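idk why but the lab printer keeps eating my pages so im just putting this in chat instead. protein + adenosine-5'-diphosphate:
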Amino acid sequence: MPDCPLLIESAVKIYSARRVLDSLSLRVERGDFLAVMGPSGSGKSTLLHAAAGLIGLDAGHVQVDGVELAELGDAALSRLRRTKIALIFQSFNLISNLTVEENMLLPLLAGNAAPDTARCRALAEKLGIADKLTSYPLSLSGGEQQRAAIGRALLPEPALILADEPTGSLDSAAGQEFCKLLRTLCDEERRTIVMVTHEPAVALAANRVLILRDGAFAGEIATTKGLSINMLSSEYHRILEQGK
Ligand SMILES: Nc1ncnc2c1ncn2[C@@H]1O[C@H](COP(=O)(O)OP(=O)(O)O)[C@@H](O)[C@H]1O
Ligand SMILES: [Mg+2]
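predcted complex ->
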C-alpha cells in the first residue's frame, strides 16, 4: 500500500443546509505538493479544517497517515494533530512574549516531549532564521515570522503540512521566498504539502493544482511544469468557467 499521508473519501460538510463540501475525495501521496484554488466561499478552508481534524464531517472519511480521524477520541485526536499535522495559517499565531526558539519548542513541551534545542537550531538554520532564535516575534519581518511558524509546525516531524493562504499577509517578495521554502521542503525532505491559495504565482510552487467550485472539484491542473503564472491563471479560469 502506498504511503498516503492524506486520504479524503466522499467528504460532505453541511452548514445552514448548504453542502459546503459536496462529496469531495482526495488522495495525497507522500512527497506530493498540492495547491487548492477556488473562489472565495468554495470550501477551501473547510476542506483543510476537515483534513486537520478541526471539524468533523457530516458524511465521508478522512484518514491521516492511515488513521481514520472519526474513530479517535478527543485525546487521541489532539495527539495526532500535534504530532502528525503541521498547520500554517495566514496569521502566524506566534506568541509575542515568547522568543522564536520558545515558540518553536512549545508544541513539543505541550506533548511532554523533551525540548530538542539542537534540532530546533538546525531547523532554524535551514529556514534562514537561526540568528532570530532569541528575538521576539514582533521584531521579525512578516516573512521571518511565517518561517518561525513553519519551524514550530515542522519540529514534531509531521506527516502532513496543511497551509491556508500562507502567503496572504506577506508582500509578494516574501511570499515568493516562502513558496521557495515549501518547494525545498518538498524536494529535499519529501514533505507532503496541501496549500490553499488564490494566487496563481503561489500555486505555481506546487506540483499540481486542484480547483474547487461550490464544494466540489471543478478540475485539476495535473502538473505546473513548464507553466508561467499567466498560463496557470488562464487555465484556472478556463476550468472554473467550463461546466458552469
Ligand atoms: N463555521 C461555519 N459556520 C457556518 N458556515 C460556515 C462556517 N465555515 C464556513 N462556512 C461557510 O462555508 C462556505 C465555505 O467557506 P470556506 O471553506 O471558508 O471557503 P473558502 O476558504 O474557499 O473561502 C462559506 O459560504 C462559508 O460562509
Ligand atoms: Mg478560506
